[in-house]
Amino acid sequence: MTRTAQTYTYLRPSAVRSTADGRSIGLETSGGATLAGREAHPSFFRGFLTYPQVTAAGLLCVADVAAARYYQLQLDSWRDPVVTGNGDRLRFESFSACCGVYARLDVLGDALDGDDIGHGTTNVDVNIPLRDALTRVGASDPLRLEVGPDEMTVTTFEGPVVEKKVPLPERWLRGFAETQVIASGFDLRAELPAAEAVRFLRALPRPGATRGASKGARWVVPAGRSLRATTRPVPGAVCLPGPERLTALSRVLRHATGLRIHGPAVTAGSGPVASAWEIGLPGMRLTLTLSPDTSRGFSGEGGVLDALAADESAEDADLVSVLLAWDPAVDIADLATQSGLTPQRVRAALTRLGTAGRIGYDTAEAAYFHRELPYDTGRAERDNPRLRAAHALVDAGAVRLDGETATVTVEDHSHRVRSAEGRLTCTCRWWAEYRGGRGPCKHALAVRIARRAAVTATAQDNTDTPTGATR
């Protein structure tokens, strides 16, 4: 696995501190992007928490996921959550070390009472002493939240500079890209009131109850105000892959106002799929998105490959990126109007921008949102082995097109790629195993790239030929 050292620099450690007005959660920020450009230590909010104990529990849940490895049970290196200010809310995000669980806490305006909420993205320091202090936060004590250094610290640089060099897997970046593609295909499948949600979640197995990968996916279907287990997928069912991964929600169950479950449409023949489990909390939402199996990280799902293989999506992404704002929701129709692109091309452009971590997807509001991470838009494309292999096949002349079918020759093997129901199928082992459930194989990608190149060449040829001229 490719790993790079990501360095976070903080003016001092985050902490729960005593103040004249009570106590204050000070979340120190590292370098990030804002409306004014890059800043070393951006400040996003300063004010009181309406629900201090709930917010503390939600932050701990996001931090728990960042430190967990669910496939091979062990605590991993501490990684600092990403925080994004969207003007009316703060979003805290993290991935598990195995990249199979994505956590996001949306702290909405009703939970924040203070200065205007800023715009931008950065990392916040969540250290062990802060975690210990957050567990002791009470419900009734006045509590301030400061996301970013306070003015005294900015002026005097009081306290030591704290630097963390974190080994950051490249699959995290690819996980951010894949989750927004996968979640955009979800719909609300079930909604439970608080009592039923707590009863259901507390009955799930704990970590360690199963070893290694899940022994087959579990499925649940709505049954009145609750959920009923089923042994196989049926229309309307939701996949619950690796149910022990939801135990991170136990920190917030006492505050839960309900549970909403999101997932894709399934049929009787469907395989395991991802799902999103959203706990409603006073003034906020906490969502855990689970990969299709404990052994599968989001980084290998392949949902972005079709968009990355489209030549025009790179130019479209450059155009759309200029139009992005730090709004709570990205308006596809508005971007289409401003850019002159079709909504379909706007979505493909957003997918490409997602490979740099610049786009997320909120299942609760069925909308994309804008964030900024320190990655370029070509990094995930360069680091994706299937896409690299597909381009290599095209460059080597291994693709032979023949109408709706194509032949891809790899060494002494030939694979047939066919169009079926709007997607490409292949005779290779990858397709036989996953049936498109983890994105296209390298042969299908190569055919798609070759066909687009052929269409472009034909159009250019027609442009170069004068009207009425013959060849």
Automatic annotation (TrEMBL):
<keyword id="KW-0479">Metal-binding</keyword>
<keyword id="KW-0863">Zinc-finger</keyword>
<dbReference type="InterPro" id="IPR007527">
    <property type="entry name" value="Znf_SWIM"/>
</dbReference>
<dbReference type="Pfam" id="PF04434">
    <property type="entry name" value="SWIM"/>
</dbReference>
<feature type="domain" description="SWIM-type">
    <location>
        <begin position="406"/>
        <end position="452"/>
    </location>
</feature>
<protein>
    <recommendedName>
        <fullName>SWIM-type domain-containing protein</fullName>
    </recommendedName>
</protein>
<dbReference type="GO" id="GO:0008270">
    <property type="term" value="F:zinc ion binding"/>
</dbReference>
<keyword id="KW-0862">Zinc</keyword>
